[in-house]
Amino acid sequence: MKKYNFPNNFWWGSAASGPQTEGRIAGDGKGENIWDYWYTKEPEKFFNEVGPDKTSQVYTKYKEDIQLMKETGHNSFRTSIQWSRLIPKGTGEINQTAVTFYREYFQGLRENGIEPFVNLYHFDMPLALQEKGGWLNRETVDAYANYAKTCFELFGDIVKIWFTHNEPIVPVEGGYLYQFHFPNHINLKEAIQVGYHENIASAKAIQAYHQLNQSGEIGIILNLTPSYPKDNANPEDVKAAKIADAFFNRSFLDPAVKGEFPEDLVTIIKELNLLPEIVPGDLTLIKDNTVDLLGINYYQPRRIKAKETPLVNVVSPMPEDFFDNYEMPGRKMNPYRGWEIYEKGIYDILTNTRENYGNIKCFISENGMGVEGEERFVNEFGIIEDDYRIKFVKDHLKYVHQAIEEGANCVGYHMWTCMDNWSWTNAYKNRYGFISVDLDKEGARTIKKSGHWFKQVADDHGFD
Ligand code: BG6
């Protein structure tokens, strides 16, 4: 038995998404989403001007990729359905080519012993819906609920583990606060409405799934960023960290798991006079439709201190009116991506989930290390020697192990990601995969050292 031994039925694998991997094939019937559109308008906003057409070509290579997943120890793998591939305008006609593709893809995974985990929304609003306001428009909630039900009906015989959203806070942050997603607004009122609608949409999808009785599970995937106060002994720092936690974590975690919005966040939003438009019945819907399981994406924590001059900008308020981000001296950084590495964060999240969220069934749905310029680590055999990634994953897994030993209901670990993939405006800047993709050689794949290592860990159910 290995020193860090995990249960025999632990989920080992990785995560990706449709828009980041599939690519767009001319004539396949896919409709435009906000990424296709934004790229045609402002290609210069994307790293090296590489857009969503140039993904890792999973659409044509998925059979080969499934074999590579086996060679890298996967017993499970997450991707997402592209809403605009399945229903090109977001509502209405279904693209039958997409139905065939996804059925074959998911079935191929299953037949090869890889459980397909399927997410419904990974930042990819169909353009036709965005033109009517996207998540700002209540009609999108109903369109999404219909899309979700369609997916369950079309693929529910093959797919038994579903997710309503990946990181729903990111479209809020990127699209309505910090300008890294279309439509690039800066407007807290809109941000709150968008987040609210995503929560309602998630509950509606959960309701639809449970009504169909398909004998599977449905959850949500949240990127949780533990908020650590600069000084634990300073009540103002502690208060500021709690507010950041409410904005960025509990705004989705509480409704998803507890069926209610966090009171402290509601109080702040009320005081700002920014409550969203609520339709009668919404709060009961949220209460009655919580998740069966929780996916936790963890990359880095937030370090928070109290604002030196607390001041809410009443004309254009922002979450940062309530706290300051703090760059802790001496914190360990990923030198290739610029994000903090704090392995214990993963343990703190799992412990919080155990203690304060009813120990809901959960798994690590993303964790990983982005590296810019990874080609420099290629050895004479053409393999990327990513020992830094092996260390990163191992160090995090040790904390996952500890949390499980102490009772956390964590049933798996997925790394971000399988094949190096296209990452929104960062395109191919930061590589994350177990498998490299050579864009100059028609997307040729080579397993990195970490992929071989991960296979061993999965086969051994752990490591020493
Ligand atoms: C995750 C997202 O949070 O971060 C992915 O779910 C994304 O979609 C990944 O690709 C990496 O981001 P970046 O900016 O380092 O390329």
From TrEMBL:
Any GO MF annotation of the entry: beta-glucosidase activity
Keywords, sorted A to Z: Glycosidase, Hydrolase
Residues annotated as catalytic: 366 (nucleophile)
A cellular component annotation (GO) from this entry: cytosol
InterPro entries documented for this protein: GH, Glyco_hydro_1, Glyco_hydro_1_AS
One Pfam family cited in the UniProt record for this chain: Glyco_hydro_1
Single GO BP term: carbohydrate catabolic process
Assigned protein family: Belongs to the glycosyl hydrolase 1 family.
Name used for this protein in its record: 6-phospho-beta-glucosidase
Organism annotation: Enterococcus thailandicus
Upper lineage: Bacteria, Bacillati, Bacillota, Bacilli, Lactobacillales
